[in-house]
Specification:
The chain is of the alpha/beta class and 264 residues long. It contains ten helices and ten strands.
């Protein structure tokens, strides 16, 4: 299977502190890949660099063979990679439909007011954009609220709206940052089903998440970071049973049954 995302020797430092150190990994075309690791392991910085929200100090990022290393966030989105954020970002005073139309306008390089004022630039693509927005709101199961302001949504519903916004431009790949943090179990199951269907429709995913159970149930491959470096990668079962992963999370590696007992 070919890679849709290639990250080679990515490094990033802040005020001399190396947040990411020569990290290399790939996300296969058509896959759902998890990125896990303890707090401070460099996960968030890595996806900020990949998505153009942080400038990379060294390394290279390719999306489907195209170099996106030096693109800013709008450029990366237009290249086909969009993302969500751990702190959910929606326009509380706009209704759900306008939230998605504004997101679509931004992804197309228009201004938010183009969508709200229905400018000539927006009108040329508005019919398709509105149809897409209505389709996604229905997919997310929140169509009964389509004309309600986003402020009435629960936290989990806002995450679904943010996910819909990331899907508006039919990206090739989406990066999800903590998509189920603070979300109730029922909503987590709904989101997992939506992710699987979107993946079956051709979208590749990279998911940063602390909920390891969610990652293990959903992902084809899991990448583990620790102290700014890639520690390992493999299937969920392989990662779950690796002593290095337990050591990274807990600070102690398990003792093998074959190991001699500690002296008393």
């Amino acid at each position: 299977m070919s890679a849709i995302l290639k990250v080679e020797n990515l490094s990033k430092a802040f005020s001399g502190v190396r947040a990411v150190r020569e990290a290399s990994f790939e996300v296969e075309q058509g896959s759902i890949t998890g990125l896990i690791g303890p707090n401070g392991s460099g996960k968030s910085t890595t996806i900020d660099c990949i998505s153009g929200f942080q400038r990379i100090d060294a390394g290279r990022v390719e999306l489907d063979g195209d170099d996106i290393t030096n693109l800013d966030a709008p450029g990366v989105a237009r290249a086909g990679l969009t993302r969500t954020f751990q702190n959910v970002r929606v326009y509380d005073s706009f209704d759900l439909l306008d939230n998605l139309l504004v997101a679509d306008a931004a992804l197309r390089g228009l201004h938010w007011y183009d969508a709200l004022l229905r400018t000539r630039s927006f009108r040329s693509v508005s019919a398709a954009a509105e149809a897409r927005a209505r389709e996604l709101i229905d997919v997310m199961g929140i169509s009964q609220l389509i004309h309600a302001p986003a402020t009435v949504l629960s936290y989990g519903q806002k995450k679904l709206l943010a996910f819909a916004a990331a899907m508006m431009a039919r990206p090739r790949m989406i990066v999800l940052d903590e998509p189920v943090a603070g979300v109730n179990p029922t909503r987590i199951n709904e989101l997992a089903d939506i992710l699987r269907k979107a993946n079956a429709g051709g979208i590749s995913f990279l998911i940063v998440e602390h909920n390891v159970e969610f990652i293990n149930s959903l992902c084809h491959k899991v990448i583990v970071f620790d102290q700014g470096r890639k520690l390992m990668e493999g299937s969920p079962g392989t990662v779950r049973s690796d002593p290095r992963v337990l050591d990274a999370y807990l600070g102690i590696a398990p003792v093998s049954r074959a190991d001699p007992a500690e002296p008393t």
